[in-house]
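To whoever picks this up:

The parser on our side crashed when reading a file containing two proteins. I've narrowed it down to the boundary between the first structure block and the second sequence. Both blocks are reproduced below exactly, byte for byte. First block:
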Amino acid sequence: MTVSSGPVQITGYAAHAKGADLVPFTYDAPALGADDVHIEISHCGVCHSDIHTLDEGWGPTAYPCIVGHEIVGTVQAIGEHVTHLAVGDRVGVGAQCGACSRCSTCLHGKDNLCGHGVFTYNATHPSGRVAYGGYAQAVRVPGDYAFKLPADLPSDVAAPLLCAGVTVFAPLKRHMFPGARVGVVGIGGLGHLAVQFAKALGASEVVGLSTSDRKAKDAAALGATKFVVLNSPEAFAANSNTLDIILCTASHHDMPWDAYVNLLDAEGKFIVVGLPEDSIKINLASVIFRQRSIVGSLIGAKNEIVDMLDFAAKHKVRPWIETMPMTEVNTAIARLRKGDVTYRFVLKNE
């Protein structure tokens, strides 16, 4: 397949209003920049961030909006400055597709924190070009944010790793120590990967934390050594001071945050990767009197994505997925809204 490096039209599925169904939408993509690549998309994961954006839960959305930031496809054209990729390479693109490369965070290998970073959708490139996501036939992005995939990571499996995978892997890799006791709040699209990564990274205990026992068997199959149902003050009290690290993938603003923090032992870390749409309330006594920390983490830097992909391939960390045709995107969105997925939808262009 030959793709022009000049201007092209790309068709995807876009929402034109808050909460609206996604419909076919064609946009004009400008000529390929010297640092850019053109990727024909084979697969795209469906992330709950897509819902937050479609519903304006995190702030205004610029419609029409094509979401999707767990993109896998094949490079079909490259800009003249791109040397690490070649036409025909199988690559992945995650939730970020640009950074300034000049600020202190970028220069220290933390480009995910760049104040001028560009997200893969509902954003604008420095040139003024709108960033459209992966519910589409193709995408054009800076080559630095297209990551060559390990040969033994199938494309459908690789897709959720580009966002969900690195979102949980990066903070665990930063904060875990050998033998750590790790709890995971929410055994869902992110949490089921967090359990696998924590085990592979050497946790002595991996504890699934949930409000019901519905996913207890799944958690055990994923590698959890224990599953705790936290449905009462007594249940929280019985498990207080038992964990070194908690990775919270849940995003409900009205969770009993103090009770969850109190599950940590002294100097434990509560790592937040799920972003509530509203402010939360927490009593800092639960932090101060046991010298605990509340830590935020945003996706992962480029080097962390590369590390995660290699680690997942080597240790056989695999998302549990259900693959659907890209044409059935609205079915996938509707089911995700209801929580009817085990554990990640992946859309496929056919």
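<<boundary where parser fails>>
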Amino acid sequence: MAKPREPFWLGGAAACMAVCFTHPLDQTKYRMQVLKSTDTMLRTMSRLAARDGIPSLWAGLSASILRQGTYSTARFGIHASLSASLLQCSGRETLPLSWNVACAGLAGGLAGLIGNPTEVVLVRMCADGAKSPQDRFRYGNALVGMVRVWTDEGARAFTKGLAPNVARSILMSVSQIATYVSAKQHLVRSAGRNDDIATHVLSSLAAGTVATTLCAPADVLKSRMQNSAGKDSLLRVIRSGLREEGPRFLMKGWTPAWLRLTPHTVLTFVFMEQLRKITQLQLFPRDAATCKL
């Protein structure tokens, strides 16, 4: 008997729930990426919170939720659908790791395309608090931002940072899956741990670290291109960054990115587990090597 397919919206719903807790870190990451300063994450966050108030750390939350509702729904949903289709066509009970990674890469690339418009609005709303008042976009919420971008700059503005965003999305999906699967397999099979939430957390910590490091350069380039209302090309952004800040600018915001991605990954898995219980679906296959995002 074939296993029932999980709802397409499951991963996106879990990610939307998780981002409500991690948005201040996400916001700080974007602000550090677009600012050309040497401030640390904590200094940046505390300085802006002292100036604008603690609630300001959640400014742009509507854009985060909209982004997760498009990007994460596509990433998790497409990956789950592709994996289920391959299992059905091949007659296998489990997918090899290479197949799982291929599904994740394809899902990540498509999700990067789908989620890029909302990413443009997210970056701008998060970065506004780090700018001088005259340079802010001042979008009231994510939907207003989408309309403003369309009317002020045209549909082409939604493609800003598309190439690095797609590259980042592919790297994110592949690095998270490969690292998570390998870490969980080692912990369950070699270290003798149970397939429980503690194991999921440890595996997610490894996945978050690898994914943050591999995705950092594409993430920085994407954020700077999307934050610009001009016509800065990818090559111009790279040249400017290397000239003014040196090669280390490609890792700018790594700490807040890691601090955001890791708890976000853990929370997403926890929420996915609860949502799957509600829909009477099993969170992960018994075989740790075949677990799917």
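After patching the parser it read the second block fine. Residues 286-293 have pLDDT under 50 and may be disordered. The radius of gyration is 19 Å.
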